[in-house]
Amino acid sequence: PPRAPPDLPPVPPPPDFCEAAAAMHLFAPPEVVTRQESKFAPPPLVQEGVEGLVGEERGIGGVVEILKAKYGCGKGQRLKVIGETGTLLQFEGGKTAPKNQEDKGWRWVLREDEEEKMAAQRAVLVARAAEDARRIAQLAAAKAAKAAAKAGKKGRTSAPSSAGTESEGDEEAKEARAAVKVKGSGKAPKAQKKDSSSDSSSDSSSDSS
């Protein structure tokens, strides 16, 4: 008999997006990320407060750093020299390295050299931090100048509108005064007419007498 088709996997529910979170993500102001804070930043050159294994001199009691993954050691591993022969250096843990591989497979680690190296690395970090601070200050100054220009432009656009309202108010006042004058001139003929009628009545009375 034919096999029944396998059941389809359940359909996942539709994603639920928060409008507020989406708006915050879309309209978030950009920020300057320094090299140290970037997720793509390389590991720090100097580890503050962590002192590696260093030696004071070459020879027995000194420290070597393995430059290549060989001699049964990993690259970058530091070992203390506990003995030596005519051709080999003997390290802790029973490991050895040939003396003729100096600066090829291993190197001496001296405190003086390490301090100079760390000082140079700190100088590089300080220079990078100063460059980042200068770049951030320039961006902040440009942003402030842009905001000031925008505010000045807004003030200039509001000034003509206020002048326009003042002119409109003056025109309304003039129209009101003109209306008052017209109204006053309309009352005057009535008064004159009344006076003329009174004069005519007085004249008629004098004639009758």
From TrEMBL:
Show the segment(s) annotated as Disordered: 147-209
Here the segments flagged for biased composition (Low complexity) are 198-209
Q: At the top level of its lineage, which domain of life is listed? A: Eukaryota
Name it: Uncharacterized protein
